[in-house]
Fold these 2 entries.
Entry 1:
Amino acid sequence: MDKRRGLPQRKPDLEFYLHRVFRKKSFRPLQREVISAVVEGHDVFLQASTSFGKSLCFQLPAVIGTGLTIVICPLLALMMDQVNALQAIGVAVSTINSNTPLAERRLILDDMLSGHPCTRLLYVTPELCQTDSFRRNLQVIHRQEQLQRIAIDEAHCISEWGHDFRPAYQELRWFKQNLTNPPVPITALTATATPRVRSDIINILGLDTTQLRLFNTPSARPNIHYEVRYLQEYSDDEDQLRNLLKWLNAIQSRRTARIGAEAATKLPPISGIIYVGLRAMSEKLAAELSRESNIAAVAYHAGLAAQERTRIQALWTSSKPCESKDGKPSPTFSIIVATNAFGMGIDNSHVRFVVHWTPPRSFEGFVQESGRAGRDGRAAASLVYYSPQERDRIGDRLSRDAENLKNRGGPKPHVESQLKNHAARLESFQKVIRYCESITKCRHDMIKDLFGDFELEEMGSQRPPSSQAMDSRGGMSSSPCDFACDFCKEGRGGLAKRQAKMAPDYMMQVMYEGYD
Ligand SMILES: Nc1ncnc2c1ncn2[C@@H]1O[C@H](COP(=O)(O)OP(=O)(O)OP(=O)(O)O)[C@@H](O)[C@H]1O
């Protein structure tokens, strides 16, 4: 073990820190292995499904021994959630971001440069890591042997082939190039990376492949029931709304049948998210749903004031019974109707369903958003409403975006980078189409295929033992679907029947691509 970074000589008792500092009973499968590799000083790449508990994999090592862990985070909200949660359990954590007052910034930097920082974790933006002054400070801390490691959250943002490309992430290559002798270990974490994005993460960050430890969990979540609802030809918003209400009412009836009407009224509401493409749609749909006595729905989008968004999120996360309407029993459902402004970092464990009102624009976005459901490990559902008309509308818009990019001009490398990222977005949307239009494969398996889980296994990635089983190709696959998708439940015939009711003049694209 590396004495220079102040890591303890004896193997640390990870359980002790888990119980005493983080107040958790036990590690989730694979967490201990990842944390051990981080503590041993390896470069680590972790691709784990939404809600796995990736943050603990760098937070727990950070509180062992001395020294500072720098955490790079792309979103202020995500950063603040983690910082607040760590402060609440007494961990010495700070953040420097655009909202940090100058005086506080000075105090943090004084501590960092003191030679024996009290701060264990410092959350920063990738943009801050590009500045000369911050880089100089990091070099000083490194020379003082107090820079324990660097954790890069949402590491897929580094790749132009990723759905959330952020140019400042590419400059994080500076760490391995400049913080040498000894190199500072890096932990890169993501929930959504395709093979191309993974290879960018490893190459751009310059992770040491001779000692890099790879870990992954299956990209599809076993507790989520995945389903695609095919909209019939000429159906309109009202038909779709009726379809959704029928589904919700069936859920309510099953609940009442199981526990009785009286007991059901005392339970917290069933939480769900409906993702829509436009702000106006989120307002309209929330208003329509709220007309139902058993639903409390609220719109959430970037057009609302920040305070209002925080208030809505807090109310929706609280899981308190909703206010009753006109003296009637309190609503059974608490639904947030959101644009994709509501996404990363939403850690509400009791979301039971995520509905995509229109096809998601990117496959990675779909997996992130549907992954907001069932974070408590209990059964949850992902529903996507799909029609070829909507498919073509989104496809056309993406093509127009490409034209606009070409016409806009600008410095060549910049335009090239944007076009590459745009090509990646088109590719990602093609995956959404394959996912929605395929009627010959389990949706869990499709998600794993489209994320290249199999390739990760071939690269020697370690996975939770419980997720390993033989798949139809004779290789290792994650746990079986167990009827938790529409294909496994209804079979090819059932899906074909539903799909045939869509507009007949639109051919399904996957047939041309030979995916099936
Ligand atoms: N061992 C554990 N036992 C119980 N709860 C845990 C454990 N590890 C993490 N958690 C909890 O799981 C939740 C999800 O953790 P975290 O936010 O790190 O997930 P994530 O993998 O980053 O997911 P996402 O990519 O969706 O943001 C948090 O509330 C966290 O406190």
Entry 2:
Amino acid sequence: MEKLIEFKNVAKEYKVGEVPIKALDGVDFSISEGEFVVVLGASGAGKSTILNILGGMDTATSGQVFVGGQEITKLNEKRLTRYRGEKIGFVFQFYNLIPNLNAMENVEFAAEVCKDHLDAKDILRKVGLSNRIKNFPSQLSGGEQQRVAIARAVAKNPLLLLCDEPTGALDYVTGKAVLKLLEDLNRETKKCVVLVTHNSAIAQMADKIIKVKSGRIESITINESRQSAEGIEW
Ligand SMILES: Nc1ncnc2c1ncn2[C@@H]1O[C@H](COP(=O)(O)OP(=O)(O)OP(=O)(O)O)[C@@H](O)[C@H]1O
């Protein structure tokens, strides 16, 4: 399989007052085309920092990050913004939908800047929301809002789908349904999904599990027996 993502000796340091905080310290890993990857670790381990650097929402202090053959650690702010807008679909824990746009408009608004974007209505149908397209976020349940957020990310037809604790605000059943949706999208579209979580049960869904501890890689495991979202329990 082609290498899609590569982190080479990546470090991230935050300065809070005079005190430097090493959020990442010498992180190396690679991810192949089409892989479903779970980044696992305790609170504060550095998971979101990895995802944010990968998605161009944050920058590394040192080291190199390659995505689809492009070194994103070399991009200036303007090109990084374009990379983020065109290549990355984000799904967050708290959905981040625009409250005064309905479901359809939320998806269209995000997708329209992307050249190869997909049809918003088709994607909303795919995530099981064809009868809610005119609803505003406040009229939708948490699980439905997360489906809109996933539709919004997918409609951009991005290179990568990055998900930061996508089930963190959802109950067990709804959370599993959202995981099933991400799994189906990964299998059907062959899009690479990188999902950050502290929930080790979710790791069973992955092709590759990257464990992070105190800003370093603790282990990288290839999972030969990937479980379906329906089959995992926590
Ligand atoms: N903007 C920031 N300024 C200062 N320190 C930060 C900042 N962002 C993150 N950190 C620190 O970097 C470390 C890694 O944070 P990160 O958010 O990546 O962890 P995480 O594994 O995603 O945790 P959680 O599961 O709680 O979200 C933590 O010690 C955190 O306090």
